[in-house]
Design a protein that fits this description.
This protein is mainly β. It contains no helices and eleven strands. Strands 2, 4, 5, 6, 9, 10 and 11 form a seven-stranded mixed sheet that branches. A four-stranded antiparallel sheet has the order 1-3-8-7, with no helix packed on it. It is globular. The termini are far apart. The model has no long low-confidence stretch (mean pLDDT about 95).
Amino acid sequence: QVQLVESGGASVQAGGSLRLSCSVSGGSFSASCMAWFRQVPGTEREGVAAIDSDGHPNYADSVNARFSISRDNAKNTLYLQMNGLKPEDTGKYYCASQRRPRCDRPMYPSLYYDWGQGTQVTVSS
């Protein structure tokens, strides 16, 4: 059984930075497309960034050039470096796994099999 545990969420001021981590156990992390999503209550889950098993990244337009996704296959850990945070980045951030090496439609949450419980990011102005 695949388990994903996010950490690193916090409350920060606009312009600040955070690094989220997602520790994965079970399954085959190194062979899986991984992604970060975020969600605000009352809205749909939104794709933020995804990364193929070979390290190729994809980003939502809203975070491109501010966020950076990376992975450490030796540690079974996914990261999201968030710089220049804005109040609209506020939400609960989830990591997810597609269980395939190449991401298929990386920003579509319905194509992801495994999800963590999320970590809260709050950005104040």
